């Protein structure tokens, strides 16, 4: 571990200490503060403590990985003093929906690419100090093995694990999963959830739009959620559908009346109400131009449930485009799969252009394809909100489907077909397209609710990786910059709260998520004048600006705006987090 050299540590004469101690108004805290020395002293900043309260002026004294003093510490000494000159100290952000598990498990000695991934630089650089992983129903198994492995490797941010419903369902049902589980299978899943919780998980994650969770009934989820909740665990659930139809749904292929987002929220409320378990409708959204504005209904359903005592919460990311929007393919997936499965000579790529041209000669098939393309254009936000990110003809890059439609004098559906016929023949859809399938109105409405935490839904990235969603680098600064400071959708303190004490409370973390004596020294220092997310969809691998220091368990993960690639994180367990073993100033 790199130890930073002390800077400008103040030597306080004994006489001054004596004077402070003898002064009539001197409190115990002041006397303690003057004692020092601290490992780290953050001096001259304003503290936004994570509760939602407005900032106050305080120096922050850190020792042994804990915040041990807050207040006027101008007379204290420290191994390392950082002068903040009016910058803001906030609790480190707690990312309630993270896919960092994909990079946290990478092998590699210090300095290697694997170790750099384990530092989760794209998130830590945003001020994130804790990630909650194994989302969308997908987890390592057994949890004890995953935990041991991460502890052995060493990790950047603190990490909380979940048990994945899809993982346990897959292990119990095997290949025969396109059906409801039998009672004995549910019992076996329940045993696995119990085991996962005993091994240190914080709860159960579900991905009900995915395989094999898609085929689970609500009655299967009740006992599993109940089991997760027995030790105070939570249930965090990826919706069955985020709009009027799930992502797997194609009008020409599937039965009508698939689940909608409204039904998903009603199911989440029913589960939370029946089991009493803290339930999180994760990455809450209203997808598709035919569903925009539905945040109003979803919010009202949740707030009415909350008013009658149902423990339901949500999280969201501050973007109007989703993860899967980044790989929008307007040619329906069933057709892509069919072409991919066709027999070819070894090494030959599928030719989607030729297959589509042939299919369009069949009137029935052409009708189905055009109907499904129309459906997909709407689901991805409509022709105005579909942008070409990559295409063999570089003149098309950055153009919307709508603008191409006007230029070519063709309907958006025919443009989508032309993109396949004239584009990359071996690539489904012929081009890389990003949809912007969410409305800013809904994104803002969710972001402003006090029961909606900020979460990234992002994994680990290093500059040089392939295209990723901008949220990988920008989620937390963007919530503060765009939605609080510039947009006024919520207060700065409210935006900080949504990423700190709120997720801590949802998880039951008793000693993180606030800048408070006795709490873990997970903090970030922000320069609000410079604070800005810089990642864009064409250039996503850009670190945010204005996050000058990040400490995780008292160690610098970002120092003077530079990543240290240190691995100070621990695997959090509910028993540690909830027993509150923290030493406080008054204990000393
Ligand atoms: Zn998800």
**Percent of residues in helices:** 25-40%
Tell me the span between the first and last alpha carbons: 27 Å
Q: How many individual β-strands? A: 22
Structural class: alpha/beta
The biggest sheet amounts to: 7 strands, mixed
Mean pLDDT: 93
Give the spatial strand order of the biggest sheet: 3-2-7-19-20-21-22
Radius of gyration from the alpha-carbon trace, in angstroms: 26 Å
Named once each, the bound ligands are: zinc ion
Low-confidence spans: 1-26, 580-588
Overall form: globular
Number of continuous helical runs = 21
Strand content: 15-25%
The gist of it:
This protein has 588 residues and is α/β, with parallel strands linked by helices. The strands form 5 sheets. Strands 3-2-7-19-20-21-22 form a 7-stranded mixed beta sheet, with no helix packed on it. Helix 7 (165-173) crosses helix 8, helix 8 (183-198) packs parallel to helix 9 and helix 10 runs parallel beside helix 11 (295-307).
Question: What do these coordinates show?
Answer:
The structure is a single chain. The protein has 588 residues and is an alpha/beta fold. The chain is built from 21 helices and 22 strands. The strands form 5 sheets. The chain has a 7-stranded mixed beta sheet with strand order 3-2-7-19-20-21-22, with no helix packed on it. Strands 11-12-13-14-15-18 form a 6-stranded parallel beta sheet, sandwiched between helices. Strands 5-4-1-6 form a 4-stranded mixed beta sheet, with helices on one face. Helix 9 links the parallel strand 12 and strand 13. Helix 7 crosses helix 8 and helix 18 packs antiparallel against helix 19. The chain is globular. It binds zinc ion. Zinc ion binds next to loops.
